Amino acid sequence: MAVVTHRATTAFAALALLLAAYRGFRMPGDWAATLEAVSVTDGFHRRFLVGTLLHPLALATGYAYWVFAAAAFAVLLALLAVLATAFFRARHPAHRLVVAGWLLLPSGGFLFHEVGYFDQALYLLLFVALWQLPRRPAVASGLMTAAVFAHEIAALTVLPVFAVVLLRRFSVRITAKLLVTPVAAELGVLALPASSPGAADRLRTAMAGADFTPRADALALFERSQSESWRLYSITEVLLLIAPILVVVVTGFLLQRRDVLAAAAVAAPALLAFAGWDWARWGFLLVTNFAVVLLLGPARDLRPLPLAVAAVLLASLPLPYFDAQHPRELNWRVVSTFADQAFSTPRGKRTVNTAPPSLCTASDPPCATTFSRAIARPSPLPSVA
Known about the structure:
The chain has 385 residues and is an all-alpha fold. Among the domains are: 104 residues, no CATH class; 66 residues, no CATH class; 95 residues. Helix 4 packs antiparallel against helix 5. The relative contact order is 0.14.
């Protein structure tokens, strides 16, 4: 019976993976490629880890698109390998179903769609840190510090999950010692300006010969304060858009186990509404933390009925894609054009997006035109974070 169950869940997971890839796969966009070029050597103080590692090769190739695309797919493939390992090593069918269910939900397609975004590097670093934790806790702490340098939203995504795992395994004193370095790094990153004066202009000039057009609005993130960003969108609007997902994942988790700290780790990405308007991305991170915390907890506590209800509700709450794209539909016309759509690259192209002023708190030109990536229905464009 156990063999049949394992075969059934394996087939289900394989189908979910194929469907997720079909619905969301694309080449990394120009926004992601631009941010992957950001390095500390160019004067950037946030989100510089990936770009700093790629900097020598980027310089040698004239910021060729393939450098950033290869790095993005390397991270995605590594993350998929981690998911496969977690699936096949799971001792309980419930944990395998959590992995397969997460892929089958809109979150699975969104994973493939956001290839190149630093969210994937954050979760990869989290899983490697958890792998190192039993033998080398100091290394695990260092990896979570690296996550902060990859993107400061680590504080509201992977660090809360890491903290929950630490509290389950260690005393409060040891937990505090292992968290002090990443927390200090987070505070330092937030205290410093996002970049040194002129860093964005210098990088824009350096990338002038690249085989894709760098996103000026992506680099503008580093020149704008958070208060200036808040004037470009409605925090209330974003909170209302992610509220249904937040309610489902938190309620779904608390129906599994009464663990307030773990529930807080599940809910933490909702606070990203105060960082930017990218509501679908924040919703994806909420669903992801929900699945990760369930996966890291004991399987014996998982109750199938509440999980099934949560899955049905989450399936009815779509996660719109970036750049006016949509999850692919299952029909022959779309299937026949899959290759053309999925492998289209931004090389030699110019992406121009205009933010609708209706969902911003200000309707002046910076909201409507200069800052071109904004929240929109039904397809949000990548945001300030």
